[in-house]
Design goal:
The chain has eleven helices and eight strands. The protein is α/β, with parallel strands linked by helices. Keywords: DNA-binding, Transcription, Transcription regulation.
Amino acid sequence: MKMSRQFPLNALRVFESAARHMSFTRAGEELGLTQTAVSYQIRLLEDATGEPLFLRRPRQVSLTEAGERLAPRIAEAFSIMSEALANLKDMSEGTLIIHSTATFASRWLARHLGTFQLENPGIAVRLETSQEMIDFAKTEADLAIRTGKGNWPGLRAHFLMKSHFTPMLSPELAATIGGVKTPRDILKLRIIDAGDPWWRIWFTAAGMPDVDLRGRPGSKFGAQAFEAAAAIAGQGVAMLKPEFYADDVALGRLIQPFELLSDDGTDYWLVYPEARRNSRKIRAFRDFLLKTMPTAGS
């Protein structure tokens, strides 16, 4: 027999995806196949093994006992193959590609990447930023800093810091109304990106759930770092993460009028593909972040 007849690798890849998602439809979306093609590949594997691997019910599939035994072994095998290829790539490429939000990149990463490279002179760093959540299967990025709940299938996630927020503004702008003493005073000033849902969350926490910001000038800067720059310039009140702007507060460029912090249930995470968890350059950067950030891993 030919090896390909003994080991239907395409069918094994389809089985691994379907078992992970517990869905033929989602497996097809991940692999770019129709549901019919997924069903065909699973049937090929079942014919090859002589065992049914899925119980098929309307709009639902579940693993049989044989499927339960096979799934973790197949997942491990593909992980080993992916890791082997990744390690080969690491040997030929010494560049670590980091994807990050613009705000985290400018307010934290930019201040610490030099230290990382001094500690790891053999690793060059390329930093890419956007607000979009990247697909590691379609990008060159090795790892990413993203906000969310930390539960992304196929990715290993390490907690970095809370993503809370509070209004901040320049002291000069606050002085134009005699100071910002109560949350209601904010309504006397221009609000940067009044359509941001963070405003509603914060005002509700401040005991003002009925505040209506509709009709205020719309403004979207695309990243918190740009909103902070506008606030420093006195153009309005911005909803910011205060830890990122401690230097601006110390220099008198921004003030945080209230101690109240709110959050939307998301946090900052370091993420990378599970299959690349043992990559040397990823491991080095992960360890650097976890030791450098006081809140990381907590």
